[in-house]
Structure formats: C-alpha cells, structure tokens
Amino acid sequence: MKKKLKRNRIRCKHCGDIIESKSIYDFQKCKCGAVGIDGGVDYAKRVYESNPAELHYEELSEYE
User: How would DSSP label each residue in 18-55?
Assistant: First the structure.
C-alpha cells in the first residue's frame, strides 16, 4: 500500500531554510537557491543542482 503524503517539506543544508509546498504547482525555493520543492500533497518533487541529493537537503515530509 502506498503512503499518502500529508506534509511536503525539506531543509536546505546550505542556508538552513525550511521550505514547504502546500498545494499542487506551489514551487518554492530556499533563500540561497540551492534547492526547490513542488507538488503539495499530490506529489513530492525535489530540485537541486547536482547529485547526490543527500548533500543538498534534509527530508522533513510527513506521511499518513
């Protein structure tokens, strides 16, 4: 069974910003521009400059 996304958010490891996408197509970027997030609770999209992702953000999303 697939988990349902309840809260879609991450913390940028470069500037410390916590960003959250609250609705579909609600694209948000941190203040330094290193990471972005999109999708609200419909999907969890992450945007960052290069791999691996672990170097750029900490996952803070919550699931039901």
Answer: EEEE-STT--EE-TTSSEEEE-TTT--EEEESSS-GGG
**Could you tell me which of 5, 63, 8 has the C-alpha nearest to residue 36?**
8
pLDDT in tens, 41-53: 999 999 998 888 7
- For residue range 6-62, list pLDDT tens digits in order: 999 999 999 999 999 999 999 999 999 999 999 999 999 999 988 887 889 999 999
Phi-psi region of 55 (alpha: psi -120 to 50; beta: other; left: phi over 0): alpha
Encoded tokens for 53 = 């992702």
Sign of the Cα torsion 52, 54, 60, 61 reads: positive
Can you say how many angstroms the Cα of residue 15 is from the centroid of all Cα atoms in its chain? 14
